[in-house]
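Table 4 source record.
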Amino acid sequence: MTSLPIGRLAPLDAGDGFGTHLADVRAGEWSDAAIEAVAPGLKAKLPALRVKDEVVGRVSPYLVQRFSFRPETEVVIGSGDNPCSLAGLGLIGVQDARAVSLGTSDTCFGCMPSAAGCRPGEGHIFGAADGSCMVLVCFKNGSLARERVKDSFGLNWNWFSRILLETRPGNRGRIMLPYFMPEITPVVREAGVRRFGGLAEGDAAGNVRAVAEAQAMALRLHSQSAGPRPERIVVTAGGSENQGLLKVIAAVFGVEVQTREVKESAAVGAALRAACTWRTGHGFPAGWEELYNAFFTSNAGRIVRPSAEATHRYHAPKGLLAAYAACGRFARGSGPDPEANIMAFRSAFPGS
């Protein structure tokens, strides 16, 4: 897409380039070993790789003549939706926050200074606009799984949210593994919903809370390679409208959850990246935080804070997180029956 406006082959940014698995993410260069393992001579066919935003050219004469662009219009290197969302949520250079996108797939991502500090784990490393990195973990069973549960009981999203707001954290130890489709994180190759702790298939409230809690706990458990526990979570995409989901995420992570009024974070981020690069190149440099706040000082959306009691139900030694992790290991054939963990939760939190 970046090549079309300038009328020639454009360089590739590290947001997209690292996603090819052909780059050495620590060095910020194409990996000769990876490229040669794919195809001889492939490196000569790849565009140049750039680890930081830059102007790659001006719009082509065709665009000037056909669509009346100004000839001096500059084109900044393009990127993917998630690296742009990092900028659009105001998280470039921010180490104490993480983003959760509740879309068709759920993703959890955050910024880190360099790939050198990333622990091996689930997820992937992409380049960020300022030359730093972002770590992203993707869960295929996102909003479509929530929608399957919602539709199976004839609910709308308002009722779905109301159930989550009115039922107690922990769901009395009833747990779901909502693999309506094969899962990316953790790797689950065969689709199939698993229920534990006596969760009945026809229990509307139990299944609504079970799917929401399972997805939030998966985000929490499988994003730990992205760095230390964040001090706040910024939630975006369609699910960020659901107050019940926000409350569950806040309790599971044990931190404040924020939303943004502007939901198209990728488009906002692309515009901010263009603005930052233009300003820097024309002698008006601005920090990312300064630039973001200049446009979005009133864009806080809503804030949800967890209760200490709700968070304790998940994080206690015999809490629901431990029981959920045991269910996952059992379902993937790497652990014993989780019934003892579920009973331990119920014993620790009677009447929950």
